[in-house]
Amino acid sequence: MMIGASDVFLVIDVQNDFCPGGALAVADGHAVVAPVLRSMQCFEHVILTQDWHPAGHISFASSHPGTAPFTTIEVAYGPQTLWPDHCVQGTPGADFHPGLNIPHAALILRKGFRREIDSYSAFLEDDHKTPTGLASYLRERGLKRLFLCGLAYDFCVRFSAVDGTEAGFECIVVEDGTRSVALRGSVEETNAIFSDLGIVKSRSPSFF
Predict the structure, then answer these.
(1) Continuous segment of H or E residues that includes residue 200
(2) Residue in 7, 17, 111, 149 annotated catalytic
(3) Residue 129 has pLDDT above 80, yes or no
(4) CB 134 within 8 Å of CB 122
(5) Which end of the chain has the smaller Cβ count within 10 Å, N or C?
(6) Closest CA to 97 of 25, 197, 43
(7) Selected catalytic residue, list 7, 13, 17, 85
(8) Given a cut of 70, is residue 161 above it in pLDDT?
């Protein structure tokens, strides 16, 4: 697969709290680092996203007495999965994985920093209408095709790929550069949505 000047490598939430030993560890999450570093060498344009929650964030089970992590409640913008406290602003858990060395990344986009709304997607908050500004950033630079990887496949990668596609960008998921939370059929649902939208999955070695 040829990589061109209008392509972007979008690395989603490769942070300590999503890796083994973290507050919301994704199984084998650290394994995405090697394919990410291998792939990023092909791209002139690289963007990182960073989950960046304030204390008491709406997505934390601890913010809702009597609830437990990985259950779902209704909030103003719809269903909200509750998580352990994670990626709290300024904590080591919110830092990027120490092996994620991408000095030519042009943008670090922080998301989930509003206390009363979650944000899985790199494009929209979870109300599905408040933009992060990424679409405008890409359009102003004439960037059209996105290769997405990171954590987790069935949540933030999924929502980013769906919203990116609906915003008019071609989205390709670098499958070996992702890992899944695998919560209540979330992987199967993600696969079905990608198939319906024509979102292609590729593997990093195909870039060479």
Answers:
(1) strand 200-202
(2) 111
(3) yes
(4) yes
(5) C
(6) 25
(7) 13
(8) yes
**Chain segment 7-61, per-residue pLDDT in tens:** 999 999 999 999 999 999 999 999 999 999 999 989 999 999 999 999 999 999 9
Over residues 100-127, the pLDDT tens digits come to 999 999 999 999 999 999 999 999 999 9
- Measure CA of the first residue to CA of the last residue in the chain; give whole Å: 7
Cα torsion 59, 117, 72, 85 to 10°: value is 0
7-52+92-207 architecture in CATH?
Answer: 3-Layer(aba) Sandwich (3.40)
Is 13 noted as a catalytic residue in this protein? Answer: yes
Question: Which residue in the list 19, 87, 149, 156 is annotated as catalytic?
Answer: 156
Respond yes or no: is residue 156 known to be catalytic.
yes
In which residue are the tokens 């915003």 written? 167
Contact of 146 with 178, CB cutoff 8 Å: no
Long-range pairs of 192-198 with CB within 8 A, sequence gap ≥ 24: 193/158, 193/162, 194/158, 194/161, 197/162, 197/165, 198/165
Q: Residue 111 catalytic? A: yes
Query: 56 is written with which tokens?
Result: 């008491």
